[in-house]
Write a structure and sequence with these properties.
Its EC number is 5.3.1.1. The chain is of the alpha/beta class and 251 residues long. It contains twelve helices and eight strands. Helix content is 45%, strand content 15%. It has an eight-stranded parallel barrel with strand order 1-2-3-4-5-6-7-8, surrounded by six helices. It binds phosphoenolpyruvate. The site of phosphoenolpyruvate has 13 residues, from strand 8.
């Protein structure tokens, strides 16, 4: 049995003070939900405040990126040890980072390995563009990402990765995929390749999330699917009642 997993990606929203207000508004309720692994991913400047506030609760914290090197001349970057000082999780390879910050499968793979080496749980994002989807290339694109992004991991390491399937056309657009479609894509492009790469036990242990316009009103449609173990939530994670509704739907 895979434990349901819901993460909020706050993107470039919330100052540290605003983050504290949001956490204060939802933490007491979130902390009552034992059945779901819950993770908040604020911007880096708010991470220390959020991590202090959730200390002693069941809620985890993650950053939205990290660099694979241990230290050095990488202006603006966060090393794995810096992230691990405050967090247990890190989002890697989000489509916005791939599109706007030149992230490639090669760098995603290095970041996944660096995160695991520092005891962080990577929330590794994959997904096709609208153009690729309309050209019937979804399976080819997502299988390619999974294979390249997780290349060289041991089965034990692979089992610790949380994979988020986020069709790019569904992110922030209000046009979510259907639960059935997301389930089919996840089975064919993530679960099956993981089994080929790492064997059944590891493939069955990996939590796979759906991401893309998840809201309180459609979350149950995704969480009722056999292959979907939770959600990576963008916009709806910025409002306490919306995020709570999604987490409750996963419980
Ligand atoms: C995301 O950016 O990971 C995401 C899923 O965004 P939204 O929920 O706003 O579509």
């Amino acid at each position: 049995m895979r434990k349901p997993f819901v993460a909020g990606n706050w993107k470039m929203n919330k100052t540290a003070a605003e983050a504290a207000t949001l956490v204060g508004a939802m933490l007491p309720e979130l902390d009552k939900i034992d059945a779901v692994e819950i993770v908040l991913c604020p911007p880096a400047t708010a991470v220390p405040a959020v991590s202090g506030l959730v200390k002693g609760s069941k809620v985890g914290v993650g950053t939205q990126n990290l660099h694979w090197e241990e230290s050095g001349a990488f202006t603006g970057e966060l090393s794995p040890a810096m992230v691990a000082e405050f967090c247990g999780y890190v989002i890697i390879g989000h489509s916005e980072r791939r599109a706007y910050f030149a992230e490639t499968d090669e760098t995603v793979n290095k970041k996944v390995k660096a995160a695991l080496a520092h005891g962080l749980t990577p929330i590794m994002c994959v997904g096709e563009t609208l153009e690729e989807n309309e050209a019937g290339r979804t399976n080819e694109v997502v299988v390619g990402q999974v294979k390249a992004d997780m290349a060289g991991l041991s089965a034990e390491e692979a089992a610790k990765v949380v994979v988020a399937y986020e069709p790019i056309w569904a992110i922030g657009t209000g046009k979510a995929a259907s639960g059935d479609l997301a389930n089919k894509v996840i089975f064919e492009t993530i679960r099956v390749p993981l089994k080929e790469m790492f064997g059944s036990a590891a493939a069955e242990a990996v939590r796979v999330l759906y991401g893309g316009s998840v809201k309180g009103s459609n979350a149950a449609e995704f969480f009722g699917q056999a292959e979907i173990d939770g959600a990576l939530v963008g916009g709806a994670s910025l409002k306490a009642e919306d995020f709570l509704a999604i987490v409750k739907a996963a419980a």
